[in-house]
Each structure stands twice: as structure tokens, then as C-alpha cells.
């Protein structure tokens, strides 16, 4: 290779890095693009809206003028957490509703729930960790076949089929937006193997579907919002610069909604700047260094969990 080729390669690499960095910074500076998706009489669907981040997202969307279709599996809980709201509800158990036996009735429920509505926003928020009854951080071999199936169904089968069934609705209410709630755990975390892999599926699904929507000339954007630690009932933590409350996390998600992937960047990003810096720093490391750091940290948590 000539010196000229090396220089060109160097400049192109530097330019790519600069563009990515500019996209990263500017995505936190631009005003929220959420109003683009708020049409007259717009509806948003939030899955898993009975607690934690989903509850905070649904509440924030109501106050930003969206009609919200609340998804949950427990009608009494939905009524309890939204006592004064005139919201409609969609009852489906994410872990089982798309089994072969239940598929048709779930499809009918979804169809009935969205018919006649201008649905322009879907937030795929339902997601469960390894948690109960096994403890959060566990080796794969301590799972049961049933616990693995629940994780896969709730975290990926549900969002995949729900999105698939709703696509015609979104294509007719453009511009519309699908937000998938991801996690930094997608970086491949030992002792969180299944959860971590489901989150990685979610970001690849978001990237591929967004590219497909662009290729088809549809006005449907898909983004994956990558979160670090959030203090929620299932994941109680002490607040700090890196640990958000559910309300703060919902605020950041809605502020960045529609703005992830600026300047040709990836449509996967951390809505909260500090999680973004951590995620960036993790991805910039060689895998052996990151693996060693994550493993040491998580082995300690496994030890405490026992
Ligand atoms: N908390 C964190 O630190 C963190 C970090 C990164 C990403 N995330 C992601 O953020 C999302 C929300 O997490 P969270 O911490 O807010 O969790 P959460 O407080 O446990 O809320 C989960 C929601 O999903 C619902 N859900 C769970 N299993 C369901 C099922 N089988 N059918 C129907 N609904 C079901 C729950 O309903 P019930 O009330 O009926 O249980 C609840 O409304 C998840 O995708 C998670 O992976 C969280």
C-alpha cells in the first residue's frame, strides 16, 4: 500500500469517528422530536405499563397529550395504578399470549383494541430479568426450561409479534415511531446470559426493521433506547449520577425519541447522556478488557445473591 492510501484510510477513519461523535453529542442537544408523532387524536401503546419505567412512560405520555393504550396482564393492577385516567387497556400475558393455542385470540384482541384509532407510537417496554425465584445474576445452568421460555417469550417473542401485527396500523398513521427499550446488558453479560441476549436481539431487530421501513419508503421509524441502571420495583437501587428514577428515565426516553441515529448514525442509543458516555466507553474497549471488568463485577453480585 502506498503512503497516499494509508493517509486516505487514516482520514476516512478519523472522519467516521468525528461524524459519530458529532451525532452522539448533537442527539442530546436537539429539541425533542416527539411532537412530530403527536397527530390530532394520536394514540400511544405502552407495554408493561403497570410499574417501573412503563408506568412512568405512560403517565408522561398522557401529560404530553397522547391518548394511551395501556398494556398489562392484570386488570385490577391497571385500574389501581391509573384510577383517574380515561385510558383504554390491552390485556395480554406477554409470556404466553403468542403460543400457538392463544395466537388467534391475542391477534383479535389487538385488532379490536386498535381499530378506529390513530396509533402513531408503540413503546415495547415489557422486559423481565432473571430475578424471581432464582436471583438476578445466575449461571445459565441454574435456570429451568420454564424460566428460559418465560424470559424469551416476554422479552422477544411478545415484542416481535406485537410489532408485526401492528405494522399495518403504523404504516397508515405516518409519521409513526416504534421505541424498543433496550439495555446496556446487550453488551454480553455473564450470569445474565439469556436476558443479555434478548436485549441484543432487540437492538438488532430495531436496526433491521428501521432499515426495512426506509427501504420500503414507509414513514415508520424504529429506535432502540439503551438504558443503564434505573431504580424500579424489580431493580431497586440507590440513586446516583448513573442510577435514574423511573420518571427521570422516562423523561430522557421521550426527550430523545425520534432523534436517535442522527447524521446517519445507528438508530440505537442511550437516551440519558451519562449512560451514553458509559456505553461509549464500554464499546471502545477491546473485548478481553471489557469481559474481564464485567465478569469481576458480576461474579461479586452472584456471590452476594447467594
Ligand atoms: N430497571 C433497570 O435498571 C433497567 C435497565 C435497563 C433496561 N431496563 C428495561 O426497561 C424495561 C422496564 O423495566 P422495569 O425495570 O421498569 O421493570 P418492572 O418494574 O418489572 O416493569 C415491568 C413491566 O412489565 C410487565 N410484565 C412483566 N411480565 C409480564 C407479562 N408476562 N405479561 C405482561 N406484562 C408483563 C410488568 O407487569 P406486572 O406489574 O404485572 O408485573 C410491568 O408492568 C424492561 O424492558 C427492562 O429490560 C430496565
UniProtKB/TrEMBL annotation:
Belongs to the short-chain dehydrogenases/reductases (SDR) family. It comes from the Eukaryota. Pfam families: adh_short. Gene3D superfamilies: NAD(P)-binding Rossmann-like Domain. The lineage of its organism: Eukaryota, Fungi, Dikarya, Ascomycota, Pezizomycotina. Keywords: Membrane, Oxidoreductase, Transmembrane, Transmembrane helix. The chain crosses the membrane at residues 6-30. InterPro entries: NAD(P)-bd_dom_sf, SDR_fam, VLCFA-Steroid_DH. GO terms for molecular function: oxidoreductase activity. This is NAD(P)-binding protein.
